[in-house]
Amino acid sequence: MKKKILTTEILIYENSENFTKAEIALIGKAKEAVKRAYAPYSQFFVGASVLLKNGEIISGNNQENAAYPSGLCAERVALFYANSLYPDVAVEALAVTVFTKNDFLETPAPPCGACRQVMLETEIRFKTPMKIFLVGKKQIYVIENAKSLLPIHFDKDLLE
Fold it and tell me: Distance between CA 41 and CA 52 in Å, rounded?
């Protein structure tokens, strides 16, 4: 038997003072996107924004449906919308935040597995790592790339 140990490095910040202006704007856009989320069932409002290599910031939010599998997470809405508007422009960073019970979550919420897979595919598509900001009220988690969130992943190599 062999053993493989996987680790993920997450940088934890208590504020955004070390972030670039573009990263601060990205986080602000994710917080704004929360206000437009449609989450009448869970009351778990998620906002996401994507910073593209061309400097554009595209936002998205979760869209629920009474038939739960028919809804879509904020991360995928933002990534798919960005890719539909700018199909040839790489994603530089993604920010995600959650608002529930009349406030933002204290600590960041992690993305679901489906969103992690889409983030990974976006990195593969553009051959560029995507920095991920998971934003809470008291902490911001920074992950250097989507592969770190999904260390054992399914990709095109398995299809060949």
Answer: 32
Q: How far apart are CA 77 and CA 59, in angstroms?
A: 8
pLDDT by residue (tens digit) across 112-160? 999 999 999 999 999 999 999 999 999 999 999 999 999 888 888 888 8
Work out the angle between the directed axes of helices 113-126 and 74-85 (0-180°, nearest 10): 20
At 22-33, the pLDDT tens digits run 999 999 999 999
- Chain segment 2-18, per-residue pLDDT in tens: 999 988 999 999 999 99
Active site residues: 75
Beta pairing, strands 57-61 & 91-100: unpaired
